[in-house]
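4.2 Preliminary Data

To establish feasibility before requesting continued support, the project team ran the inverse folding procedure on a target of 385 residues. The structure was first converted into the token representation described in Section 3, and no sequence information of any kind was made available to the design step. The complete token record follows.
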């Protein structure tokens, strides 16, 4: 297996997705010319990138607003609501569309479900709970910086479960990510130990879940695309999270807590969370794992900026420096040296072409980038009132 192919498969693993070649194994429906898929196939890849970045960022910012700004301090309810909404939508899709017909090829039994799906569901619930609890104590920007270490934790988990053999060279590459995250952590102004522990637990549980997903998807008898996996995961996640919510949060809930958010916003929150799963499937199916990797890095940067603008989360120069190191290490780890050289070469050729043929456009782009950098610096140096 070549280095670039291995990097692509690893990117799928870290995103919680199955391999792209498995998605492609699903045969097209005979009525594709008149189905929504025909229209979707004509769209530019930039649409899928923008769709995924919008939904992924939207879920994070929406959850942060509901849990912190709206003072709805019930993360277990929020995760239960997301999974309940996803379970209902996948059931409707299974009954009234052909988008989940590939589930009939999965020989799912009760024993197989308990041995394969249920452990993944438990880890998935724990990762969601830990991640949402972190939003009560940490800023969105700092959480995104911590999530850069997800690749490192997932790699170590694959070594621990002997899915891939340990590689000291790879460990040296990912150590740059750890160093960058440490630098950013020491520069965090609003550091909260409990929130840090919640986020760290969420990252660990997510890494373990991804390892178990890889083991599940590597078995020849079980092959399912992400939407089909959501069809199986969501109901059990909703039940487990609901049981925890009934014990921990329900005794403290009041009608006024829900009134502060409102039913329409809860519905919108559930729709955005479900659309994230749909956009992930579309992005992987219509582009590639490399595109997912680059889109994820762009999303993280935009989220840091959005956190500074919307929630006035201060970001220090030390955090910028540490996060830049972590992002650079993450790009190199996921793409590899050869892919980076190819991307750099293509970008240089494109830049030279624009400089020769459209110098005015390049001048405006430089001015816009400078203005954006000044605004970013201004928001970053501000302190919350």
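Position-by-position output of the design step:
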């Amino acid at each position: 297996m070549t280095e670039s192919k291995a990097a692509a498969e690893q990117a799928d693993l870290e995103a919680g997705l199955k391999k792209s070649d498995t998605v492609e194994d699903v045969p097209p429906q005979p009525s594709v010319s008149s189905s929504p898929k025909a229209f979707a196939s004509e769209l530019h890849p930039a649409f899928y990138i923008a769709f995924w970045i919008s939904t992924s960022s939207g879920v994070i910012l929406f959850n942060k607003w509901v849990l912190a700004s709206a003072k709805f301090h019930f993360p277990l309810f929020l995760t239960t609501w997301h999974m309940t909404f996803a379970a209902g939508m996948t059931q409707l899709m299974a009954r009234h569309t052909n988008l989940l017909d590939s589930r009939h090829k999965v020989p799912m039994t009760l024993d197989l479900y308990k041995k394969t799906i249920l452990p993944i569901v438990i880890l998935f619930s724990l990762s969601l709970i830990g991640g949402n609890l972190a939003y009560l104590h940490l800023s969105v920007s700092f959480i995104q910086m911590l999530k850069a270490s997800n690749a490192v934790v997932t790699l170590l988990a694959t070594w621990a479960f002997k899915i891939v053999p340990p590689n000291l060279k790879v460990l040296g590459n990912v150590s740059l990510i750890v160093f960058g995250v440490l630098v950013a952590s020491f520069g965090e102004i609003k550091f909260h130990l409990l929130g840090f522990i919640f986020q760290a637990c969420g990252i660990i549980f997510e890494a373990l879940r991804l390892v178990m997903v890889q083991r599940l998807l590597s078995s020849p008898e079980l092959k399912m695309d992400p939407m089909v996996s959501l069809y199986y995961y969501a109901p059990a996640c909703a039940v487990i999270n609901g049981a925890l919510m009934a014990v921990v949060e329900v005794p403290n809930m009041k009608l006024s807590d829900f009134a502060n958010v409102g039913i329409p916003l809860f519905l919108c929150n559930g729709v955005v969370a479900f659309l994230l799963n749909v956009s992930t499937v579309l992005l992987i199916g219509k582009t590639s794992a490399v595109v997912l990797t680059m889109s994820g890095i762009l999303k993280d940067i935009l989220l840091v900026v959005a956190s500074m603008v919307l929630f006035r989360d201060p970001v220090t120069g030390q955090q910028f420096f540490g996060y830049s190191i972590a992002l650079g290490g993450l790009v190199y780890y996921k793409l590899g040296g050869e892919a980076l050289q190819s991307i750099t070469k293509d970008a240089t050729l494109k830049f030279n072409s624009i400089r020769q043929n459209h110098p005015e456009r390049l001048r405006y782009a430089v001015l816009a980038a400078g203005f954006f950098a000044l605004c970013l610096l201004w928001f970053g140096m501000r302190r919350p009132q």
